[in-house]
Each structure stands twice: as C-alpha cells, then as structure tokens.
Design brief:
There is one protein chain. Helices cover 44% and strands 14% of the residues. Strands 1, 2, 3, 6, 7, 8, 9, 10 and 11 form a 9-stranded mixed β-sheet that branches. Strand 4 and strand 5 form a beta hairpin. The radius of gyration is 22 Å and the shape is globular. It starts with a helix and ends with a helix.
Length: 436
C-alpha cells in the first residue's frame, strides 16, 4: 500500500511542473516519425530502459528479466535504469530534447498523453502493427489509453484494478457466513448492519487517493456517471451519479458503519488488525505479507449502483523521440517490449496484473496466484484512468472533493461542485499549455 501510494502521489505532485517543463520542448505530438519494427536483426545496439520500479519485488524481478532477454538476444543489450516515478517525469523532457533520454520507458496510463502532447514520444502505430498487436490482445479499452489525437503512443504492460478485501474472522464474529461475501448493495448493507450490531464498523472510509478516491470513482461509474465528457474538455463528476456515489460513502460514516476521520492507510491497517471486515483496495495488496496471518479473501467490489464498474490504473511502454534517435535502437526496443509482454507471467509478484491477454488467460497464472482470480474477472468492466495532456493535476481535484466530504467540511454536492469548477479551470489552462 505505502509503496504503491508513494508511486502515484509522487507522480501527481510533479504533474504541474512536468507540464511546464515539457512546454520547453516546444514540439507537437508525434514528432520523430514512425519507426517500424519486427524481430530485430540489425547491428548490435544498447537500449536504455527507464522505469519507476524501485519498490517491492520489481527491483529483483526486472533485472532478472532483462538479463534473460539479453542472454537470448546477442545483438541487443538492454540497460535497466530504475528511478522514482517523480524523478523520471522530471528528467525525461530535457533528456529527450538533448538526445540523452531512454530509448524505451514505462509510464502510467494517465501520463502517456502528456508526454505525447509535447513531442517526447514516437508514434508507435507501425510498431504495434509489426509486433502483431491489436486492441484484442489486451483488456477492453486499454489500448485506447495509449492513444493521443488518433495515434498510438503506448503499448500496454500492466493493470491494477480495485477489489474488496475481506477479513473472514471478523465476519464470523458478527455471525456472517464468510463463504457468502456480499456482491450487491442489499447484501453489502445487510452485512454492515450485522457487523454494527456486533459492535464492528465494517468498512472504514477514508478521503485519500488510496482508497477513498478510487472507491468513489468506482461508485461514480456504477451509478452511470463519468469523470469527464468524451473529449475531456469538461469535468462531469458532480453529476447526480457523482453525488449518489459520494453520498453513499459519507452515509457509511453518518450511519455508524465507518468511523470518522480515518487516517491514510488506516482502513487496511484496521482490516489486518481485525477491527473491520471490508476494505476497497487494489490488487497490489495481494502481495502484502501482513495478510499471511489472516483468514482473508479478495472478491470483486460489490455492485452498489446500477451497473458493474471498477477503477483500475495501467502502465504502458513508450518509445522516446530523442534528438537524433537511432531507429535501430527503437526497433530493438520494440523487440524487447514484445519479449517482456510474452514473459510477464511472474509480474503478479509485484502486485500488478500482466496486460497481455495470452499471459493473463493462461490457467497456470491463477494456479500460481489464486488470489488474482476476482481481479481478473473484473477486467471486462474495469474503467481506466483518464488519458489527456496534464490530466493528473485535474484529477487531483477529485481527491480534494472526496476528502472534504468524508471529513464533513462540505456536503457531497458542494464538494463536488467546487471541485468541478476548479477542474474546469485547470482543463482550460491545460488546453493553453499543451496547445489542444
């Protein structure tokens, strides 16, 4: 949890600075031209690979994968360069402009359009085609997250949907059968009522990105709403659906199903300590070793609204448009990307799901990682982070609204209305900054 939180919080913290720094590059999206690639057979090259995988299992797993790839490709040497996500975002613009950036890098789905809008990325349509990829090779809607102005700039690598974590011992204390975990609003609220009767606050609601914001977004989509309009020019999360979603969360506090003023990470810590039964959290918690002492399970988030929906983030491969970029290096980097996706079966060790359908749908994956099944089952109705230039500073207003409502500073409607007003101002500023 802390590792994953730090990743996204750091990235969000530099979002505004990133946009300003990128503006200095001064080029339009897609500069650098298209580079075709297949199974690279050219002269020996060294491919520089930047990524933000500095915590958890990744620092051990990634070097092993890179070493294996290098041993199998005598004409390609991949140089793994891990750094904090925030540092990667800060360094990328000037490095690419100077021709000293990476040949390939990984970014979160809501950052790809920002890089593309400033001409830092190569269009990857021809690479996607030459590698034999299509949208059907990944979860529905995921390829689109790597698009900008009708061109492809990213190839999916991983996804991280939210799920419902359950402490079965706590359910037993309330006389609830742990084999029948609630999947809809009626059964979920009934379970919370039984837990309350037993003196247990069944779901601890917080106002932080992890997990309050992601729970709110899941509920927003469940009630039929969305964060923005189709072309991401207007924020819409203060719709009736948004108010319903946030009111559901604040009502849990008002009705005593959740304590007030839950600290960041307080809900997952309470679950582990046996103080609560349910926690909406990401697939990354399946690697939490503190769970080893619990009788627990993970299931799909309950359907509180009128339709199934769940939040998920994603990460994508990008090919950089360095000044004087060597097409052989880009072609070799594409071979590396394809190999990594084909060999991503061990990636769940990091708390993320491989994006490749062929890897994810292999029965061996669930056999090795049985706790992943509910998260895999959610992917057909998962919603991914909004893709638009500079979007991370805009979506930060959602967290502000959730926090203000959860802490009782504002009503759900007032908090959302105020946040949407700020979000729309930021969207206009982004349009000026990125030339949209």
């Amino acid at each position: 949890m802390k590792k994953r939180s730090a990743v996204r919080v750091l990235a969000a913290a530099v979002a505004v600075g990133l946009g300003l720094a990128l503006t200095a590059c001064g080029s339009s999206g897609g500069s650098g031209g298209e580079v075709a690639s297949g199974d690279y057979s050219g002269p020996k090259v060294t491919v520089t690979f930047w990524n933000g995988w500095t915590g958890g299992a990744a620092p051990v797993l990634v070097p092993k994968l890179v070493d294996k790839f290098n041993s199998e490709h005598k004409n390609i040497v991949v140089k793994n360069v891990p750094m904090e996500w925030a540092d990667l975002a800060k360094k990328m613009p000037l490095a690419v402009k100077a021709g000293k950036g990476p040949d390939v890098a990984v970014a979160h789905g809501d950052d790809v359009a920002t890089y593309a809008a400033q001409g830092l990325l190569l269009k990857s349509d021809s690479i996607v085609k030459s590698l034999g990829y299509s949208a059907g090779d990944f979860p529905e809607g995921l390829m689109k997250a790597g698009e900008y102005k009708g061109a492809q700039y990213g190839i999916p690598w991983s996804v991280t949907p939210l799920g419902l974590y359950v402490n079965k011992d706590v359910l037993k204390q309330a006389g609830i059968d742990p084999t029948t975990i609630p999947a809809d609003k009626t059964s979920y609220m009934d379970a919370l009522a039984k837990l309350k009767t037993a003196g247990i606050q069944g779901e601890w609601v917080d106002g932080y990105v992890f997990t309050g914001t992601f729970e709110f977004q899941s509920l927003l989509w469940q009630f039929g709403g969305d964060l923005f309009n189709n072309d991401v020019t207007k924020a819409t999360f203060n719709s009736d659906a948004g108010v319903q979603a946030l009111t559901h969360m604040t009502d849990l506090i008002k009705q005593g199903y959740s304590p007030a003023n839950v600290a960041q990470d307080g809900n997952i810590n309470a679950l582990i300590a046996g103080k609560t039964a349910f926690n909406w959290n990401g697939v990354w918690q399946t690697t939490n070793t503190a769970f080893d002492k619990l009788d627990w399970s993970a299931v799909a988030v309950p359907q509180i609204g009128t339709e199934k929906a769940v939040w998920s983030s994603s990460t994508h491969w990008m090919f950089l448009a360095n000044k004087g970029q060597d097409k052989n290096k880009t072609s070799a980097a594409a071979t590396f990307v394809k190999w990594m996706n084909d060999n991503s079966a061990s990636w769940p060790d990091t708390g993320e799901l491989p994006a490749s359908n062929s890897v994810r749908n292999d029965p061996a994956l669930v056999q090795k990682y049985p706790n992943l099944k509910p998260f895999l089952d959610e992917l057909p109705y998962a919603h991914y982070e909004t893709s638009a230039p500079g979007i991370t500073n805009v979506t930060a207003t959602v967290t502000t609204a959730v926090n203000e409502a959860i802490t009782g500073k504002k009503s759900p409607k007032q908090a959302l209305d105020d946040a949407v007003e700020k979000a729309n101002t930021l969207l206009k500023q982004n349009k000026q900054t990125y030339g949209e």
